[in-house]
């Protein structure tokens, strides 16, 4: 039997694993359909079936048949069913929106049913082919599933021309389109960066714009891909580039016009979802809008080639704390003085209102008193966010290095300029306020059509050239982005230690060392993967450079703040290992310079190299699932340690790989 069918591909197998099995997929899809119905029904009820004059007590009850009462109840404010239906029939635009919503819901229902049929097939594949029962899926990491998939391929031929599939092939099939998008962001091809009057340079990339770009390039009727694995033949011919560019630009304009026509409906839907999603949280915790999150642009800019979604999420999650500390370390003295006084005035009035309501709860019946309390609380919360912590220490360079250790990519011109306002403004484009994220999503129905109509067409020819020049066909995989092959020889940058290992002209080099860093991350995350000879030579050259630099640094035991390296890595709380190693590196130059046993200060690069040298094969055992380790399906890292409540070995291996990649990121940026 063929292993990979239309509904059974590595991408769907990965999605099934990440969505935690068929039961979770079924429940999630059903509740999403119910949520859609609830939003439409509840909104219609609020528009047509509520008598707001009665609810706000602006006139007496007019449809209640009970004697006059002092208080109005909710049933009193609800119109009778006949009157509600009459108001609904009298609104033509509302009937049109309901019909449109019904059509959308039916489309989502059909899509969900088709998806569930495919996921049921994948469930059977997990049980019968991979030997993973449904109830045990949550105990298996994706690396375990991938190892079983490759082992199955070795026993049973797949529907591919070649016998062997590698870890890289699996990632290519899962991330085919995502790798193209990451590469285009890396080469600044997508229209997401703009320079506006008064606002200056801005980045605008929302989920709506991303959906339209993917529809335009990969999945739509005029897309450059003819199916999910191959480009249209004319894309690969240089003589067709201008005709293709004109067709792509025309499709972008038509898509923009369609977005513009649907803008009122989409904008109204976004406003409803935002209100139902965030209103209660804003009332309960007004400061939640001041929390920060990685922007959608950051998730493309900071993503490695061939990095799966859960791996990116874990890495950015580790960097969230350091990034928050870095952004919070900036403060405006003028705003701080203003915020202290505004907070004092608003807090004083709020305190009086709270005391009055505690003394006599009838104060709450005063008109707009709850509104005043809510707004004053919001003002106090916002004012406090501008007041810096009096115990904070100003050390932006070290904080930015901690961020770099986890996110792995930062612009070169930020080095030595971590304390500048310009650097903070650029960092805010990657690490934005939640309020900014919500505002951008609300503005997306208005801005996305303008980008598609005016900003995309001038770049259509460059995008067509990109797909022609940076696409390679791999047997058994299809057309993929050439950057995703992690080929240092064809896409390496000499500034990132690949000098002598690359033949790429500047226009074919990846920016910010993405090829080199992606290669290292993939090799560390997939220890059984055998890199091709050019990649193997580059990794060997890097290890030799690390060894030379480590010779000029003190031993690791003098760099680690909390005991030797083994204690740091093999401790019960191994999750602190990467952060502890990074902190040791950043403190090395100052601490070692004051240590009389060393005659000269230790550079950050040397300290990092010393720790990297000590991290080589720290466990002294071959990786699980390697050819020399017995038992392909009984990998120690897959066994759940019920006594300790953790995946002991897999967690340790993941933290060691994370620590080593963090150190490599710091080291490469230093040298």
Automatic annotation (TrEMBL):
It is found in: Preautophagosomal structure membrane. InterPro entries: Autophagy-rel_prot_9. One of its GO terms (biological process) is piecemeal microautophagy of the nucleus. It comes from the Eukaryota. The chain crosses the membrane at residues 21-47, 93-113, 251-279, 334-356, 368-387. Keywords: Autophagy, Lipid transport, Membrane, Transmembrane, Transmembrane helix, Transport. GO terms for cellular component: autophagosome; phagophore assembly site membrane. Residues 630-642 have a biased composition (Basic and acidic residues). Its main location: membrane. It is a multi-pass membrane protein. Residues 621-642 are annotated as: Disordered. Belongs to the ATG9 family. Phospholipid scramblase involved in autophagy. Cycles between the preautophagosomal structure/phagophore assembly site (PAS) and the cytoplasmic vesicle pool and supplies membrane for the growing autophagosome. Lipid scramblase activity plays a key role in preautophagosomal structure/phagophore assembly by distributing the phospholipids that arrive through ATG2 from the cytoplasmic to the luminal leaflet of the bilayer, thereby driving autophagosomal membrane expansion. This is Autophagy-related protein 9.
């Amino acid at each position: 039997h063929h292993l990979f069918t239309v509904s059974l591909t590595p991408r769907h197998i990965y999605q099934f694993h990440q969505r935690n099995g068929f039961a979770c997929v079924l429940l999630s899809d059903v509740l999403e359909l119910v949520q859609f119905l609830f939003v439409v029904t509840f909104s219609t009820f609020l528009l047509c079936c509520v008598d707001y004059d009665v609810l706000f007590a602006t006139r007496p009850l007019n449809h209640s048949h009970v004697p006059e009462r002092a208080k109005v109840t909710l049933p009193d404010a609800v119109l009778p069913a006949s009157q509600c239906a009459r108001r609904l029939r009298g609104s033509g635009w509302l009937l049109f929106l309901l019909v449109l919503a019904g059509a959308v819901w039916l489309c989502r229902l059909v899509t969900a049913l088709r998806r569930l049929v495919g996921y049921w097939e994948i469930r059977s594949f997990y049980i019968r082919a991979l030997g993973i029962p449904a109830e045990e899926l949550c105990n298996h990491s994706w690396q375990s599933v991938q190892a079983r998939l490759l082992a199955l391929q070795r026993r049973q031929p797949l529907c591919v021309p070649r016998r062997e599939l590698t870890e890289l092939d699996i990632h290519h099939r899962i991330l085919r389109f995502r790798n193209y998008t990451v590469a285009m962001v890396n080469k600044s091809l997508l229209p997401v960066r703009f320079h506006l009057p008064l606002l200056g340079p801005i980045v605008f990339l929302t989920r709506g714009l991303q959906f339209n770009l993917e529809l335009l390039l990969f999945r739509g009727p005029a897309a450059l891909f003819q199916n999910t694995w191959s480009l249209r033949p004319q894309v690969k011919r240089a003589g067709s580039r201008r005709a293709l560019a004109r067709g792509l630009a025309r499709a972008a304009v038509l898509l923009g016009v369609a977005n513009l026509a649907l803008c009122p409906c989409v904008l109204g839907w976004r406003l409803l979802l935002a209100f139902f999603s965030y209103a209660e949280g804003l009332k309960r915790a007004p400061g939640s809008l001041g929390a920060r999150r990685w922007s959608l642009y950051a998730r493309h800019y900071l993503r490695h080639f061939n990095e799966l979604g859960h791996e990116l999420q874990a890495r950015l999650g580790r960097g969230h704390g350091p990034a928050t500390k870095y952004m919070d370390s900036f403060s405006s003295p003028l705003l701080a003085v203003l915020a202290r006084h505004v907070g004092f005035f608003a807090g004083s009035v709020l305190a009086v209102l709270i005391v009055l309501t505690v003394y006599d709860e009838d104060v709450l019946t005063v008109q707009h008193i709850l509104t005043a309390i809510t707004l004053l609380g919001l003002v106090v919360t916002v004012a406090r966010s501008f007041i810096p912590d009096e115990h904070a220490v100003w050390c932006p360079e070290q904080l930015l290095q901690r961020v770099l250790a986890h996110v792995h990519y930062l612009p070169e011109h930020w080095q030595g300029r971590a304390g500048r306002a310009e650097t903070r403004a650029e960092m805010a484009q990657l690490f934005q306020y939640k309020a900014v994220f919500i505002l951008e999503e609300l503005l997306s129905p208005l801005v996305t059509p303008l980008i598609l109509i005016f900003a995309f067409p001038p770049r259509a020819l460059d995008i067509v050239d990109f797909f022609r020049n940076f696409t390679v066909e791999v047997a058994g995989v299809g057309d993929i982005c050439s950057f995703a092959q992690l080929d240092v020889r064809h896409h390496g940058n000499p500034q990132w230690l690949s000098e002598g290992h690359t033949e790429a002209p500047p226009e074919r080099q990846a920016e910010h060392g993405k090829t080199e860093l992606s290669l290292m991350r993939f090799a560390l995350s997939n220890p059984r993967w055998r890199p091709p000879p050019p990649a193997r030579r580059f990794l060997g050259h890097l290890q030799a450079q690390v060894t030379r630099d480590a010779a000029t640094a003190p031993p690791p035991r003098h760099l680690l703040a909390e005991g030797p390296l083994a204690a740091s890595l093999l401790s019960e709380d191994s999750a602190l290992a990467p952060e502890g190693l990074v902190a040791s590196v950043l403190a090395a130059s100052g601490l070692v310079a004051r240590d009389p046993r060393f005659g000269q200060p230790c550079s950050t690069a040397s300290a990092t190299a010393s720790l990297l040298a000590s991290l080589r094969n720290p466990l002294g055992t071959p990786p699980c699932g390697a050819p020399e380790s017995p038992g392909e399906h009984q990998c120690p890292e897959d066994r759940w340690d019920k006594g300790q409540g953790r995946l002991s070995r897999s967690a340790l291996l993941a933290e060691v790989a994370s620590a080593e990649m963090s150190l490599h990121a710091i080291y490469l940026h230093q040298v």
